[in-house]
Amino acid sequence: MRGFQKALSLVRRSLVRTIRKRQATYLGHVMRRGKLEHLVTTGKFEGKRSRGRQREKIMDGLATWLGPGKVSDILAAVKDRDLWRDMIANAYKQGT
After folding, report:
1. Cα separation of 17 and 26, whole Å?
2. Exposure of 27 by Cβ count < 10 A (0-12 exposed, 13-18 middle, 19+ buried)?
3. pLDDT of 39 above 70
4. Under 8 Å between Cβ of 73 and 83
C-alpha cells in the first residue's frame, strides 16, 4: 500500500505543477491584454464581498508558487514577456 500512496503523491505533485504553470501562462496573457479579465484576476472590481471564507485568488496562489515577492512585483514582471517566461520556468523546475 505504501508504494501506491507514494505513486499517488508523485502524480498529484506533477498535476499541481502543471496546473500552476498553465495558470501562470494564462495570467501573463491576460495581464498583457489589459481588458476586463485583467480587472477580474487582480480583484479590482467594485461591489460587496460575500460572507464567509473568501475564495483563494489566482494571484495569491501564483505568488506563493513563484516564490517570495509581492503581488505588485509579479504584475510588473508580467509586462516583460521574457522575464515572465523565465520566472515560470524556474518555478516549474523547483516544483511545488
Report:
1. 14
2. buried
3. no
4. no
